[in-house]
């Protein structure tokens, strides 16, 4: 089966679908023949995003859902499965990125990040697995980060949630392998999305998208190719991030020096200018 054929006719939910990777995944899924329920908590934004994909007609649907609210996630997933007759794929993609120093982070910062990045995925899996088990098939794709594999300094809260997503996804992958369910975890590096503009310094200035950030549409294609191959861990872009991850796991001296320099440079930025990049 080709990577395109894997998605043809599939019923898919994508959270965080109104922009960034979520929007790019929605568009590419539609391009490959899937029916997509685009989920977001802001009715206007998700409706606008769906309108931009209106050429796909009745294969585009919207869900207004706050993924930090278990009841809303449960209702959205069960309602979609009931309406469409099944749920083939769930892309737990919604998340936030708020780098900060550990000593200045509050418990509220921890709560916000973990509720949005981790609990939202737990809620999604909790709702989808019973449906997929009853069907005897299904694929859940959870978005983590390269920071869920490599502990980039000055974003400890974010890293904690993203490392947890990797552990959750890989555990579920093996637990349900013999039941016909598949689980993949996506670990993107810097992708050209609006997430950077939401990171502001002490003066309210937004962070710019890195010049070498990977295009979101290409990231979506890479992700869906990996998902179609039932890859458990999908690093995007693969080069050079898999080398960085591999070097970290193996204790490579150059990677260690890179992370220490990263910590030094970003601490100076935080302490002197109140910004991350």
Task: Please name the defining characteristics of this protein.
single chain, 277 residues, Rossmann fold, seven-stranded parallel beta sheet, globular
The CATH H-level homologous superfamily: NAD(P)-binding Rossmann-like Domain
Strand percentage, roughly?
Answer: 15-25%
CATH architectural arrangement: 3-Layer(aba) Sandwich
Order of helices and strands: EHEHEHEHEHEEEHEHH
Characterize the biggest β-sheet.
7 strands, parallel
The tally of structural domains comes to 1
Overall mean pLDDT stands at 93
Spans of 5+ residues with little confidence (pLDDT < 50)?
A: none
Q: How helical, in percent, are the residues? A: 40-55%
CATH topology: Rossmann fold
**Number of E-type strands:** 9
What is the highest CATH level, the class?
Alpha Beta
Give a description of the structure.
The radius of gyration is 18 Å and the shape is globular. Helix 1 (20-31) packs across helix 6. With 277 residues, the protein is of the alpha/beta class. It has helices spanning 20-31, 43-52, 70-84, 107-135, 156-175, 216-228, 238-249, 253-273, and strands at 11-15, 35-40, 60-64, 89-92, 138-143, 181-188, 191-192, 214-215, 233-236. The protein has one domain (11-273): NAD(P)-binding Rossmann-like Domain (Rossmann fold), CATH 3.40.50. The longest helix is centred in the middle third of the chain and has 29 residues, at 107-135. The strands form 2 sheets. A 7-stranded parallel beta sheet has the order 3-2-1-4-5-6-9, with helices on both faces. A two-stranded parallel sheet has the order 7-8. It contains 8 helices and 9 strands. 39% of the residues are buried. The mean pLDDT is 93.
